[in-house]
Design brief:
This protein is mainly α and 240 residues long. The protein has 9 helices and 2 strands; from the N terminus they run H-H-H-H-H-H-H-H-H-E-E. The chain has a two-stranded antiparallel sheet. The longest helix is centred in the middle third of the chain and has 29 residues. The termini are far apart.
Length: 240
């Protein structure tokens, strides 16, 4: 190995802790980071599936071909080292058995891109299955729901604000049915910020009304029964 390759490996080793190692999640992000590194090092060509092999070195090879073979071998080694050292230990142990960087790269893609597709389906399921309850703050649940929206970017789907507003209204709990009808019959087109403001005001009003009702004083009605000229208190009935 020449000094250029050695210096590159040393530089990588010193900076390796700066890169988040791949643990089996967010494969696309990890892959894009690796592509950036390979491009910066001018070794991305090694990962080209259409790269024409140079064949085994022969004594009769020209000096130019020998130099190209040497560079190809060194760059391939760099790619393999970069990929393996960007994996968590359990993945390193698994994929280090593969000999070429393209084998490792392809195997990882086949494994984790399919898992990513499953994750995308799960995000879609979560979005449509999401429902709100009276047991938690409506605004907190709205924020939790809206966290799902950016995840559709991976599916190359952009959810319009008006669509999200309609979804929020549809997912309000049953106790909000009358308020839902009020929102649906208004001619105003709400933005996400506006619908959250309306929901916050409504929720605060409901909490305040509930507190006032719980603090309302109760009165007592005394039942009086007259038995043979004597007045007797037989009980009290509380009424609000």
């Amino acid at each position: 190995m020449d000094s250029g390759v050695e210096s590159t490996l040393k530089a990588y080793a010193s900076d390796s802790n700066k890169l988040n190692r791949f643990d089996g999640t967010n494969f696309t992000r990890w892959q894009e980071k690796m592509k950036f590194v390979f491009t910066a090092l001018k070794i991305m060509y090694i990962m080209d599936p259409d790269l024409v092999p140079l064949g085994e070195p022969q004594d009769t090879d020209s000096d130019e071909l020998k130099a190209e073979q040497k560079k190809r071998s060194d760059d391939s080694l760099l790619c393999r080292v970069y990929i393996l050292n960007s994996l968590f230990d359990r993945l390193y142990d698994l994929y280090s058995q593969l000999t070429t960087p393209m084998e490792i790269w392809t195997s990882l893609a086949n494994q984790y891109k399919s898992e990513k597709q499953g994750a995308n389906k799960f995000v879609t399921f979560q979005f449509f299955k999401f429902s709100m309850t009276d047991k938690r703050s409506i605004l907190d649940q709205v924020h939790e729901f809206l966290i799902l929206a950016p995840k559709f970017t991976a599916l190359k789907i952009t959810l319009p604000g008006a669509f999200l507003v309609g979804a929020i209204i549809a997912k309000l709990p049953p106790s909000w049915n009358n308020y839902r009808k009020k929102l649906l019959h208004t001619s105003e087109d709400f933005t996400l910020e506006q619908i959250q403001k309306h929901l916050r005001i409504e929720e605060e009003t409901r909490i305040r009304d509930k507190d006032l009702n719980s603090e309302a004083p109760s009165s007592s009605k005394v039942n009086v029964v007259e038995i043979k000229g004597n007045t007797t208190l037989v009980g009290e009935e509380k009424c609000k």
